[in-house]
Protein: Molybdopterin-dependent oxidoreductase
Organism: Pontivivens ytuae
Amino acid sequence: LTPSHGGATRTTCAYCGVGCGVIASPDGQGGATIAGDPDHPANFGRLCSKGSALGETLGLDGRLLTPQVGGVEASWDAALDLVADRFRETIAEHGPDSVAFYVSGQFLTEDYYVANKLMKGFIGSANIDTNSRLCMASSVAGHKRAFGEDVVPGTYADLEEAELIVLTGSNLAWCHPVLHQRVQAGGAKVVVIDPRRTVTADGADMHLALRPGSDVALWSGLLGHLFGEGCIDLDFAAHVEGMAGAASAPTLAQVAAATGLTKQELRAFYALWTRTEKVVSVYSQGVNQAADGTDRVNAILDCHLATGRIGKSGCGPFSVTGQPNAMGGREVGGLANMLAAHLDLENAAHREAVQGFWASPAIADKQGLKAVDLFRACADGRVKALWIMCTNPAVSMPEADAVRAAIRNVPFVVVSDIEAETDTVRLADVALPATGWGEKDGTVTNSERRISRQRAFLPAPGEAMDDWRIIAEVGKRMGWAEAFGWSCAAEVFDEWTRMTALSRDFGKVLDLTALEGCDYDAMAPVMWPVGGPERLFADGAFPRGKGQILAPRMGEMPLRDRRHPFTLNTGRVRDHWHTMTRTGRSAKLSLHIAEPFVEVHPADAAALGIAPAGLVRIASAHGAMIARAQVTDRVARGQLFAPIHWTGETASTARVDALVEGRVDPVSGQPALKGMAVEIKAL
Ligand code: SF4
């Protein structure tokens, strides 16, 4: 691979965690034509509708091009001095935990690394959390419980080499389309586990429309079945703890009662999983975004650990991440409960090693505020200076109305973004213009642990600056010029690769040291551990010593009450991304689904007088929204589905996260963005 290709530039898609390689050819007028990179190992030239339309999302309309202080244009020096002064004064008066950063899975790894270094090593607080908390935190926690480290054991090639692929809590055809194409190319049997009959389910060999919240019961029942059928790898079991706990797995009758599936459906699924050696179980937000999300993840991992179906060709559990760099952020410690390099905040030796590497004046010694708690701390006055970077929490957080009010309550709010007018930028005291996709250099890590370069092929517009550089400039102004003195993204990456020696020293898998001093410009996509095996754990060598099976459980069902008798699930549509600040620029992408909707079952629609395409109001205890009814039996009676993308400030718009309660998984802190108790009425 070479970085340029006939005048074009090889880079990586801006959107999902598949991490497709893209070839961008600038048109000389600020735009570019886009093609899939035939040599990139994630996609081999394929692109989905969103990736193909990236060229239409470029351009300067609506961009934030100069720093703004109090809504008035300011110089970079004035804005950066103000940010550094206010953070320094706040820390001096109220301590390091009175400030917080809220960052993004769309940050490049270099941005994440610098933000985490400033907060945990120099400010001395762990109050840095990320919108990846809404996306993948339960997978992180599940991996750590089972393996001792946040590691996806398999590779995308397993999707082509498997004989059976189970897609659970994943509408892969719409949310990770290129991986869905790879599944189809492999020809494995496909089982979809999803309360809703999605497009992915339409193409599957089996669809299990389980009741929302019964995932743990379903997978725990499978574990019991595997033991009952003698389908346990006894050699591999020597490397796994907790095998005895499987004796308490729920019976088939208990699983049928919990899931609403028939015993015949369950027997068919369990028999297929049991007799197929090469099984990949893919899971995504339908698993993670729940109050028992971590238990759901572990219930899936348990079945693979018990059978030794892990780390081998065509075998393994597979977490597919939502965002382009959810993995890279996790690696450098971008979550409030982690140190960099997969090390632990609670471990004194780990803290000492990280502080020593950075030669920093401080090191956070306890967990910081996770996303939902972070904005609650803004509401009750504990956070007095907040810096939001590259994300739009005024729309995307649970209890979005309360979060908007919480941000307003913070005495000093900084927002870095590429857009001038997001719902969150409007709440900023200081708005800082950042470079966006195609304008900056850095790296991202995709769902199979593959690091790829994002490369600039357009000049930075106006006065926009790379996020890592903005943060470093503030770090310098806070008094740490040497520690934040990099001149380019390559130097940041080089420091990061050197830091992963700590991870290796403490027995972790994450190791990028072979990339130290590499030719950053020419860097080809590479998996970590760099130079190590691509598939992990087939030999039973887990970072925690032995793998861990957790005792089977029944899981946690969503809440319902008499006033809110419906269960609302949320998700993506095929052609839009997050709050549409980028995909909303492409007219072509809005052709697929042009407006917000809610799916409602025909029998419920008839009972409530809801006409097809009529407007409905959906309300929870936390907020309300209006959308157009799509009357369909894709959802079961008593269930609704609405997309997450549309925004707005009032209950007459379709901002679904205003309805979501900030209920979190107690292990991961990930909010339950699925399974809300709501009411629905015709308008
Ligand atoms: Fe981009 Fe994901 Fe589509 Fe690939 S599958 S082109 S990474 S949005």
Observations:
- Residues 137-323+542-548 form a domain with the Dimethylsulfoxide Reductase; domain 2 fold (CATH 3.40.228.10).
- The first strand starts at residue 4 and ends at 5.
- The pocket of iron/sulfur cluster is lined by residues 13, 15-16, 18-20, 43, 47-48, 50-51, 176-178 (CB under 6 Å).
